[in-house]
Design a protein that fits this description.
By secondary structure, this protein is mainly alpha-helical. The chain is about 75% helix and about 0% strand.
């Protein structure tokens, strides 16, 4: 049997001092570091998904390149190069380049 050195009023006083120092902690509330971790994980997932989609767009562009006219082929090559250049950079730039390539692919596929 363990005997606590805090009993009765002493235990209540110790709890009050702890609450004053740290405030009351509610376990159901998300802590800021947990929220930051979740946001970072979402950014990583978004970036990974964007790069997979970019790869798929590049593959489709390369397949259509063989049958494209000279002007369309040049536009395709430029758009693919823009996407490849942006893959190592910011997601916003990559998304913009992907949108441009997707629009061109839609035009050529129609």
């Amino acid at each position: 049997m363990t005997v606590s050195r805090f009993t009765g009023d002493k235990l209540a006083e110790a709890r009050e001092r702890i609450d004053e120092l740290f405030g009351e902690q509610n376990g159901s509330e998300l802590q800021p570091d947990v929220i930051a971790d979740d946001a970072d994980a979402a950014k990583v997932d978004y970036g990974r998904r964007l790069r997979v989609e970019a790869g798929a767009l590049i593959e489709k562009a390369e397949r259509l390149l063989a049958n494209a006219g000279s002007e369309d082929a040049e536009d395709l090559v430029n758009a693919v190069e823009a996407v490849k250049d942006c893959m190592a950079g910011a997601d916003v730039d990559l998304k913009t380049a992907m949108d441009t390539l997707a629009d061109l692919l839609y035009y050529l596929d129609a």
